[in-house]
């Protein structure tokens, strides 16, 4: 969370205070790489957290085996490495596209859909395809999270104690709320049709998935 916000908000605040919207080409590339790295790693870690909650509530006797320190380190490492590769692929692909529609990005940070609007050929379709693959992968993780929580809620409803219900739901619902907000606004930002795109709408959606 801290990494994602630190990638976009400080530069935006500095530009606002200095009454400018400038960012260098290399700065924009670094911002896209850092943003995708942190936000991808965060999403994979949120998926791991859903699995952790599933094991803790549905298979408590196996928790020590399935979620031991070695398993946690491996899953965290996979999340961070996947985030790095994801960010590297998108950044390299985006900045290999020739741009000829000016140099103004209608957003408070360098966002790939806004940069693709500046492309001057069909070469941007490769990055669009890559974004679609990424969204499908993200949707697969989301389905995994939803199925995990369905199992969790089924197990929780079997708990006879109201205190047990409260403890389980207070642990799971905040995580589910964060994932739902992140996924819904992120999907909308990257998959919405151009016909309903507007600077104000793009700004609100970007703030929701990248800051809130």
UniProtKB/TrEMBL annotation:
Keyword set includes Transmembrane helix: yes
Organism whose genome encodes this protein: Apteryx mantelli
Span of domain G-protein coupled receptors family 1 profile: 1-212
The protein's name: Olfactory receptor 14A16-like
Record membrane topology: Multi-pass membrane protein
Main location (coarse class): membrane
TM ranges: 22-45, 66-89, 128-150, 171-191
Location relative to the cell: Cell membrane
SUPFAM superfamilies per record: Family A G protein-coupled receptor-like
Keyword Cell wall biogenesis/degradation: no
Keywords of the record: Cell membrane, G-protein coupled receptor, Membrane, Olfaction, Receptor, Sensory transduction, Transducer, Transmembrane, Transmembrane helix
């Amino acid at each position: 969370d801290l990494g994602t916000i630190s990638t976009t908000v400080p530069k935006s605040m500095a530009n606002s205070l200095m009454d400018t919207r400038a960012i260098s080409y290399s700065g924009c590339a670094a911002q896209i790489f850092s943003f995708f790295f942190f936000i991808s790693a965060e999403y994979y870690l949120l998926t791991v957290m859903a699995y952790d909650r599933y094991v803790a509530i549905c298979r408590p006797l196996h928790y020590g085996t399935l979620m031991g320190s070695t398993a946690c380190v491996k899953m965290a490492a996979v999340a961070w490495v996947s985030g790095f590769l994801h960010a590297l692929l998108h950044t390299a692909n985006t900045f290999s596209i020739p741009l000829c529609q000016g140099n103004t990005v209608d957003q408070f940070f360098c966002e790939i859909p806004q940069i693709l609007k500046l492309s001057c050929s069909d070469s941007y379709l490769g990055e669009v395809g890559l974004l679609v693959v990424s969204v499908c992968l993200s949707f697969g993780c989301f389905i995994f999270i939803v199925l995990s929580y369905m199992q969790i809620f089924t197990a929780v409803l079997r708990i006879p104690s109201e205190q047990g219900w409260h403890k389980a739901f207070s642990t799971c619902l905040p995580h589910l709320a964060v994932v739902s907000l992140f996924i819904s606004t992120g999907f909308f930002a990257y998959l919405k049709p151009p016909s309903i795109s507007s600077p104000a709408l793009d700004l609100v959606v970007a703030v929701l998935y990248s800051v809130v």
